[in-house]
Amino acid sequence: MNTVTTDLAVLGAGPGGYVAAIRAAQLGLKVAIIEKNKLGGVCLNIGCIPSKALIHQAEIYSHALEAENMGIKLDLKGFNYETVYKKSRSAADRLSKGVAFLMKKNKIEVIEGTGTLSGPGKITVKSSSGEEILVESTNILVATGSSPRQIPGFEFDGKQVLSSDDALMLKKVPESMIILGAGAIGCEFAHVMNTFGSEISMVEMLPQILPTEDKDTAKVLHDSFKKRKISIFTGTKALGLKKTASGVELDIEKEGGKKETLKAEKLLVVVGRVPNTAGIGLENLGIETDRGFIPVKDYNETNIPGVYAIGDVVATPLLAHVASKEGEIAVEHMAGHAGRKSVDLTAVPGAVYTEPEIASFGLTKEKAILKGFDAVEAVFPYRGAGKAVATDAADGIVKIVYASDTKEILGAHLAGSRATEILHELLLAKNSELLPYDVAEMIHAHPTLSETVMEAAKIIEGGAIHI
Ligand code: FAD
After folding, report:
1. In tens digits, what is the pLDDT along the chain, a chain of 467 residues?
2. 191 Cβ partners below 8 Å, 6+ apart?
3. Is residue 186 in contact with ligand 1, taking CB distance under 6 Å?
4. Which residues face 140 on adjacent strands?
5. Closest Cα to residue 459, out of 407, 406, 387, 413?
6. Is residue 287 within 8 Å of 294, Cβ to Cβ?
């Protein structure tokens, strides 16, 4: 068996693992990264990037459909979804190749195969051809990510019952689709598939779509989906599934106990993700898990010194940028450059790429009050901003949640065009301990969507005035 000796062995090359590997190499560590599938992990290959490529094309198509209302005549001949799909794959492939280039540039050894923690400081890697390599390393970083959650009775079959992986690989738009789970991934698929003409029903057990988001921003999206004739069943349980020759039949129990059967060509089940921690040898090193996740201490170190865990295997928000930041924190500690001890969960941005977009960080007013803040909120509507009206994007809100006594920004919740971009001004303000006054005082170019942020801050300071 070949042996590779390193300062750091990274298990899994998603946005957690590959970013950590690069940072470690920059700090002078000798690094090997082990990946059983494609460099870039879920995010680049079967998550953030291909989904955003589909969303981008859906939006071009939807703008083309609306062009007539704006006096533009287009001879539109529909779309070729296979080309749309191929474009999303080429974005993913291009970025995965980009990661390979970065590994080479930073002299990181890439080991292809499935790694198992086989003893203290040891990972045994088995390649697809059966060859075994032993990696011996001073530090180990577990970054094996997550997989779609399956629920009994609704198991994926890749044909009628799809996971998000399957849905990203569709080469044809289904005539109709039921989406079980109205979180970020479910809503993004509803947006894409509905734009390309699929009849969509969404079933969500909790009382609102995007259950973790602010109720008012979620309502903006809910209303927009309703306008687009997406059927939404919130507070609804999926009772059972029957596969038929033409598709699926889903029995549901709606709020109040009324039962109904929904029919569609396909069912997409997006009810969360499970950490990839089974079968990777954690027990061989005595690494604990809690409901599948790996508990970590400061600097994302596990209960075993020298072994760290980051990204979707840790019970922090399952987001690419959280994985990357945790990777940086862990390797900076290994290299003796320790800074921040953990990700600041009050300042993690969340983004949902629907139309309108949803973006947020920090506390909602309700959660802030539960935490003991005397929290209030300022809300400015997009329709009050000239740029939003001029660009046909008047549906939306900017909400700032703040402490009434100190005016500290506790959270921000946006729904609207480009919300995922303009959120960051408020996040920077919070991270820099600025107050709404500072945001309100800063001159914002007119007309911009960012003026909505300034106007929301001005409400706190005594009144918004803009159109
Ligand atoms: P992963 O990206 O899951 O990578 C883990 C890697 O480890 C994989 O490549 C896997 O093959 C490898 N691996 C696992 N076990 C082994 C082993 N034993 N040996 C070798 N290799 C192994 N997040 C956002 O922030 N923004 C978004 O817009 C967004 N959109 C998403 C859309 C979809 C459809 C999905 C499914 C997810 C989306 N996410 C998004 C979530 C994001 O993809 C994840 O949070 C992120 O990929 C987690 O990164 P990670 O490095 O922890 O793990």
Report:
1. 899 999 999 999 999 999 999 999 999 999 999 999 999 999 999 999 999 999 999 999 999 998 888 899 998 889 999 999 999 999 999 999 999 999 999 999 999 999 999 999 999 999 999 999 999 999 999 999 999 999 999 999 999 999 999 999 999 999 999 999 999 999 999 999 999 999 999 999 999 999 999 999 999 999 999 999 999 999 999 999 999 999 999 999 999 999 999 999 999 999 999 999 999 999 999 999 999 999 999 999 999 999 999 999 999 999 999 999 999 999 999 999 978 999 999 999 999 999 999 999 999 999 999 999 999 999 999 999 999 999 999 999 999 999 999 999 999 999 999 999 999 999 999 999 999 999 999 999 999 999 999 999 999 988 666 54
2. 55, 58, 353, 354, 355
3. no
4. 9, 307
5. 407
6. yes
| Nearest CA owner, ligand 1 atom 7 | 12
Q: Which residue has the tokens 């003026």?
A: 451
Ligand 1 and 125: CB distance under 6 A: no
For atom 28 of ligand 1, the residue with the nearest CA is: 48
Q: What is the pTM of this model?
A: 0.97
Assess whether the C-beta atom of 163 lies below 6 angstroms from ligand 1.
no
